[in-house]
Amino acid sequence: MIFKTLILSTFTTFCIFAKAQETLNIADLGQLNLHYTNIKHVESVALQPIKATVTHKTGEAYQMVAPFEPQRHEFLVGNGEYVESGKAVMLLSGSEVHHFLEQFESAKALFNLAKNRYELNKKLFKQKSISNDKWLSISQSYFENKIEYGHFRHFNELIHSIKSEDEIVIKAPLDGYFFYPDLESINASELKLGQVLPKESLRVKTYINIDEATKIKNLETIHCLIKVDEVSQVAEGLFLKTWSNTITDECQLSFGQVISVIPHLSTDAYQVPKSSVFTIDRSYYVLVKKGTQLKVTPISLIEASNTFYYIESATDLNNQEVLSTSVSAVQGVLMGLGGE
Amino acid sequence: MLDKIIRFSLTQRVFVVVIFGVLIALGINAWKQIPIDAFPDISTTQVNIIIKAPGMTAEEIESQITTVIETELLGIPNKDILRSTTKYAITSITLDFQSNTDIYWARQQVNERLLSIWDQLPANIDGGLAPMSTPLSEMFMFTIENPSLSITQRKHILDWQIRPILRTVAGVADVNVLGGETKTIQFSPDIVAMANANVSIDDIQLSLDKANLNGSVGRINMGTESLIIRTQGRFNTLNDVANLVVRNINDKLYYLKDIGDISFNSTVRYGAVTKDGKETTEALVVALKNVNTEQVVDGVREKLDQIEKTLPKGTKLNVFYDRKNLIETAVDTITSALFQAIILVIILLALFLGNVRASLVVSTSIPIAVIIAFFLMHQFGLSANLMSLGGLVIAIGMIVDSSVVVVENIISQLSKNNNLPRLHLMYRASKAIAVPVFSGTIIVIMVFVPLLSLSGLEGKLFSPVALTIVFAMCSALVVSLTIIPVLASFIINNKKLEAPKYLMKLQNGYTKTLDKVLKAPSLTMISFILVLAISAILYTMLGKIFMPVLDEGDIIVQLEKSPTISLKESIDLDKQIEIALLNNVPEIKQIVARVGSDELGLDPMSLNETDVFMELQPRDTWEASSKAVIEDKIRNILVNYPGINFGFTQPIQMRVSEMLTGSTGAVTAKVFGPDITKLSKLAHDISKIVKNTQGSIDVQTTIIEGGDYLNVVLKPELASQFDMNVAELSHFLNIQIDGFKAAEIINGKIKTPIMFASKSDTGGVSSIVELEKLLIMMPDNTMSRLKDIAEITLKVGPSIIERENAERFAVVATNVTGRDMVGYVEELQVNMNKQLKLPNGYFIVYGGEFKNQIRATNNLLTVIPLVLILIVIILFSTFNSLKMSGLIIANIPFALMGGILGLSISGQYLSVPASIGFIALLGVAVLNGVVMLSHIESVKYKGNNLIKLISTASGDRLRPILMTATTAMFGLMPLVAATGPGAEIQKPLAIVVIGGLFTSTIATLYLLPIFYYKLENKNHV
Predict the structure, then answer these.
(1) What band does B66 get if pLDDT is binned at 50, 70 and 90?
(2) Which of A7, A301, A329 sits opposite B643 (nearest CB)?
């Protein structure tokens, strides 16, 4: 063992003191199995997978709010189901529904009354037939009723159908994903019936390290590649919140899904097989084929995948071939190894 | 005393025959039982501790493990040297005990001390005492072959089906499994999913620990019976692991499979094995120290035959190394040399004695003495090996001498036809020569006895030789004075023994030439002195080695690749070379190459080191004329693979070299001291001085500094925000890089580790950039990149730390050419003292192969004068004259010159066996001198013409002298002629003895009478 240690140590000495010569004749490499691989120029490099969430930016979901608290509500579609505008999504029932319908009719009648009175008195006010105070009172009544009615009318527009005096069916106001409300909001004074998120609002949100976030161009999921839309300018610890463009059906993602995404870093690099890269004195090199010679080319590693390294080089390596087998033996030659 | 023995033998002939019959039976029984091996046990009493500490750097292991253990072991009784080598993830501590220390006692002592400090060592380490083996213990190797089985499946079979059974074979210390992949159930955490489920690694570990067990509950009484209750939770399958519930949040169950990948996988590999260019798995059977290798191999083979039938269809156990083959070949070589020697000696006896009955009686002394020698060897714990059997071959020519003298005298007495009873005549004849026979044998024995005092490797190798010769000579002496007279009484008639005619002619010719030489001795003396001078010059020109190399039959090529090479790349290069060798060297039957470390850690090689083991085709099918030619062919292939160093060795040679010399250099300078950096610089400075010292060649310097490692240091101000600490980070990184054994599944005897490790299909972390960007799951279940919470820097530290007696050291090793070793070391020491200033606490120790040579030389320089003194004492007691003793001693240089000439002509080197040949030579040379001088002395007053007296007396002694010399010479001829493995070590010895006896016999026949004449002429009346 000590013998081997001595030999190893001698090699290490070579390692430390060896200066990589610039070129090697391929003919001098004897019977070594020499295969070459084309160097590929790449504009992006996949980084390690990170956690991401399928969600939407704040405020992009349509909130469905009821002006009363129904005794019962029954969802007619699944949570997160894609619904088209006008589709019945919920059945509200109970006496409060009846009260609402009555309130709506009442508000409507009051509004019509106030409106007629307002229209009729408008000419009189222009002719100065009525006093300012009177006109103010009529106008105030009209607008109050208008607001009251409008309030009821907006909700009424969500009504798909009235099944009975105690039951109404609510419809989706627009195309999108329908989400059930939180439990808390059900008990609130103004009931949130749910929300509809437009299809074009669904995005992937992730957090990327500050020094890489601005260079990330795409996020890769299992089924699709999505462009990065926005990188927040406000750091959250060591990260910046990053939003993708809206996702498409081909991505097969669901709202709220936690997924792994692979960020693609924009770069200007060359892709070489891992077996092509070697070190001498802690510097990285590849062996580039130049006719009958191999040129020892210094490089720097910037990223790695399963089988490739992504490298940068001061030399233009486009359309060049790099040695990808027996590289360690050639490294040994550069270190002065070989022979008995 | 001797006459009483002879009288008893002749009066109790039947009893003596029965006694010898019993002795022969015991001897034959001993031969059957005696352990047979290639070599004698040359290992010291050595206890090895191997500790594996996954992920720890050499420096960390040294401070936390090696030093702690060494400190505890330093005070152990009978300790000789304490050495350690610490590398990444492993430390090997070796304690050499003084010779003759009982190995079991030594192991117990070490084990007790190790256990007493085990709690002080870091957690998650693994190991202990290495198997009780020696470097020669690797005696059986095989691979498991089946194209339809993956290397994981093959290793699984080796681990769980073959290894447990082979370990039951008596004498097997362990079975080292190399190559292949260990099957695991791997959980690869998906940290995104884990964060989502709010589960940490510790949570998973805790769930696993609590679930994967069978709890013991107790018993309940059920009516008149009792029933045992247990809780069952132990996992049996991958699905059991996958369905482990790790979290329940609001009825949302998170199974292990939900937060990561569960799959069958394999542990990180530190080595691999390839066979003929394809990966495979190898088992290496390690034998216990002091076992009968042949029996162990037979036991292993028997078990393998049984196991092979139970293996999956198409599975073959491919044996590529069986020590028994070497043993059989080597022992066959020596045994056939032994039988050839016996036949040659019997033929010579017949030729010299000219009497079939006498030859028959004398010849019987050979097998009887040899068989009794076996009995004694067995009683003294000697094994039958190259050395001990070689000793018997050496002794063959000498063991007949005493019987020859006895038989010759018996015939002589019987032929006088006295009227005395026949047995009485035999008694008188035997008694008359009993003392000279005893003295002569004692002289030969005395020459070999001091060899028993040799120490070191030469002592371990040649003590059996000396002991066997002593046994054989003692047996021969007893045989000659007991059973030989008895056999003679049964076989020999009263017919006068007359020398054959050709001997008479030879004797006449000799007497005439001696007469002439005595009258004009100048030319003869000048000739002798001239040859002596030439041999003295040749001596200085002889190549010197410590020991000849034994041809073990197989070839190992050691490959050394770029030190930073990965396992995959290393395997790829090995495969290329294997295929090229198989395609171009038809003499290679198969190649099994091993790269990196073995599982037991007995020889933790680095990933750039490969031992390429080549099994050769049977010799008669070779195209090449010799093994050297095959090596040349291999060499020609290997030079076509530049960038890879290679060297040739053999299985035993490799291990012995590592055990004994510690380094390949003839001279090593070890600088000891505490600081790695200073040691590194001093080693560099010493290297310069060594290179500048005349005679240095192949200077190698250990660079203990230079191991690159990445240092990950937490940024506490940031890490603390996430509750991250060093322990958590190490644990997390360990999972990402190497994998962490969290639990295991037990199915009968099969244990499958459950590993937490990163997905293998992602390629793992393969650059510093990747490590920096590695996502870390914080204890608060948030994620961060490593470089955000830790500084990552490339550090240079010791890649290997070697220690001796608890002191760090660095070595500079060199070979020496063109000058003597001792002078070189002296000059080197002077240069060191002049040019090197050692800091306080630092010192240099010189060692290496030269130390073996110097020790051997010193031993021999002590032994040889001792032998000479003993010879002088015996001679003086025989002649009562210092002058006569001096004359015989003066004959010795002329014996030595023949040995030197023999070495020069045969191209052999001066080595330890050759030196021992010179010592063996002394015995026979002196004995012949005694035979000659004692007879001349006895007749010197029987006439006035001294020249006539001397030449006649010398002529009378021609036959015994020629018989003694030629039987010894021809007894060794088969060793010189032997070409098979095993003959290499004894060959120089045989050549020296044959050459020496040749010149010694001529000197005895001509020069000794001249000296005697010169000395006695003045006084003779």
Answers:
(1) very high
(2) A329
DSSP H or E run through B908: none
φ/ψ of residue B139, rounded to 5: -115, 0
The DSSP bridge partners found for residue B615 are B590
Tell me which chain A residues have a C-beta less than 8 angstroms from the C-beta of B773.
Answer: 47-48
Strands A225-236, B278-287: parallel, antiparallel or unpaired by DSSP?
A: unpaired
Give me the helix-helix angle, B1008-1016 and B501-519, nearest 10°: 50
Report yes or no: B657 at the A interface, CB cutoff 8 Å. yes
Of A12, A259, A325, the CB nearest to B563: A12
CATH of A19-42+268-339, one of 1.10.10, 2.40.420, 3.40.630, 3.10.50: 2.40.420
pLDDT at B524 (0 to 100): 86
Distance from CA of B57 to the nearest CA of A (A): 16
Residue B947's Cβ-count burial label (10 Å; 0-12, 13-18, 19+) is: middle
Q: For the domain with range A50-58+200-267, which CATH number is right: 1.25.40, 1.10.101, 2.40.30, 2.60.40?
A: 2.40.30
Which range is least confidently modeled, B269-283, B609-623, B672-686?
Answer: B672-686
Candidate from B657, B763, B800 with C-beta closest to A306: B763
Average pLDDT of the residues in B494-523? 81
Write out the residue limits of the CATH 2.40.420 domain(s) in chain A: 19-42+268-339
pLDDT, tens digit, for every residue of B781-818?
677 788 888 888 877 777 788 888 888 888 887 877 76
Q: How far is B567 from chain A (nearest CA, A)?
A: 11
Please tell me which residue, B1017 or B704, carries the higher pLDDT value: B1017
Q: Is the pLDDT of residue B1021 over 60?
A: no
Q: Hey, are the CB atoms on A329 and B774 less than 8 Å from each other?
A: no
Q: Quick check: A14 pLDDT over 50?
A: no
Instruction: Give the pLDDT confidence score for residue B587 in this predicted structure.
Output: 94
- Within an 8 Å CB–CB cutoff, is residue B605 touching chain A? yes
What is the reported pLDDT for B637?
93
Q: Where in chain A is the domain with CATH 2.40.30?
A: 50-58+200-267
Residue A18 pLDDT greater than 70, yes or no: no
State the residue for tokens 């490593």: B786
Q: CB–CB of A50 and B192 under 8 A?
A: yes
Cβ <8 Å between A328 and B576? no
ipTM for the assembly: 0.75
DSSP A307: S
- Contact status of B306 with chain A (Cβ, < 8 Å): no
Q: What are phi and psi of A258, to 5 degrees?
A: -100, 125
A60/chain B closest Cα distance in angstroms? 25
Which amino acid type is present at position B669? A
What is the DSSP pairing of strand B138-145 with strand B278-287? antiparallel
Average pLDDT, chain B: 84
Burial class (CB in 10 A: 0-12, 13-18, 19+), B874: buried
B818: helix, coil or strand? coil
CB pairs under 8 A between A and B: 202
Burial group, residue B781, by CB count within 10 angstroms (0-12, 13-18, 19+): middle
Say what the pLDDT of residue A289 is. 94
pLDDT digit string, tens, across residues B857-880: 777 777 778 777 877 887 787 777
Alpha carbon distances (Å) from B854 to B88, B663, B680, B998:
36, 16, 28, 30
pLDDT confidence bin for A20, thresholds 50/70/90: very low
Q: Can you give B656-716 as a three-state secondary structure string?
A: HHHHHCCCCCCEEEEEECCCHHHHHHHHHHHHHHHHHCCCEEEEEECCCEEEEEEEEEECH
Going by C-beta distance under 8 Å and a sequence separation of 6 or more, which residues neighbour residue A119?
none
Q: What angle do CA B1003, B1004, B1005 make, to 5 degrees?
A: 90
